Amino acid sequence: MLLNLLTGLPVMLLCLLLQAIFMAKCLRHYVRFRHAQQGRESQLLDILLLSMVMLLMLLMLLGNFVQMAIWAALFMLLGEFGDFATALYHSGVNFATLGYGDIVMSARWRLLGPLEAANGILMFGVSTSVMTAAVMDVIKLNMARLQQSERP
């Protein structure tokens, strides 16, 4: 068990670092776009902002796929799988917490699966919170516009 933790925790830390990088890049692009559009009021702006949120979602999802590939590479290095496609499939099932159980690792490394699942559920949660914050920003923008238009 200790060997699994000593092997998996550095990978989790790497995934956290990657998630932070993807998140910072996505938020920086959103803030720049939002700032460039400041002062404009239209339904088209709302559509553009929400489209930017969807782009953020895709980029965050790409970050999650990269993390799955890192876990798959670890499984390959440990000799658990003969090909990368199978390792990636197993990693995706763990990361997304699906838990099919159709492919299992050896008893020696089996605890890496739940460790990756914990990592994955945290990363999907962080991705969701970033998208929720961006959508809330669009809602606040619309509320501020509404309040300004109601002022005498």
UniProtKB/TrEMBL annotation:
Tell me any Pfam family this protein matches: Ion_trans_2
Task: Give TM segment ranges.
Answer: 6-27, 47-74, 117-139
**Which GO BP terms apply?**
monoatomic ion transmembrane transport
InterPro entries, alphabetically? K_chnl_dom
Question: What is the superkingdom listed in this entry's lineage?
Answer: Bacteria
Which keywords label this protein?
A: Ion channel, Ion transport, Membrane, Transmembrane, Transmembrane helix, Transport
Q: Which residues form the Potassium channel domain?
A: 69-135
Q: Which residues form a coiled coil?
A: none
Q: What is this protein called?
A: Two pore domain potassium channel family protein
Q: Which organism is it from?
A: Pseudomonas cavernicola
What lineage is this protein's organism placed in? Answer: Bacteria, Pseudomonadati, Pseudomonadota, Gammaproteobacteria, Pseudomonadales
